[in-house]
Amino acid sequence: MSTTCYTLVGLPGSGKSTFRKSQIEAGFWDRNILVNSLDDYIHAHRGERSYLEAFPLLIDEASAYCDAVMSAAASQRLSVVVDRTNLTRRHRQLIYAALPHHNHVCVWIDPPEVERQFRMEQRKDQNIPEYILKGMERRFEAPNVEREPWFSFVSRVTE
Questions:
Q1: What is the CATH number of the domain that holds 35?
Q2: pLDDT value at residue 102
Q3: What are the strands, taking DSSP E only, across the chain?
């Protein structure tokens, strides 16, 4: 069985975590797949605090946890899904560098803008300030196999 790194790409509210959970639920991905998600860690450890209150307090700890997940995936040759925004080629290249012996698949979650905005409005506890979202939109680089040859393919999910 080959080990795969699924790199999810998309702006906040695009549906990356929902997609990940649906793939596991439907049996397309192993239920024991490692999950690298800052959001999951912060939600699990925030206690009574809101996500936005907890984020600055837990980000270093969450990042260390995500690094440990990548190390485990590399040393034990386990499949992993990286459920973060992964907005730039550089971010995605770092994932490849951490897991050079894995098969790399990119899943770009790209719903219609109106759908993404609706999802963001529903996330009251995780409401990202508009100026941060705009900055993320400006920095976003669409994944492309020609520019990112470590991916065996890029799948774009638009719904």
A1: 3.40.50.300
A2: 96
A3: 4-9, 34-36, 80-83, 103-109, 151-157
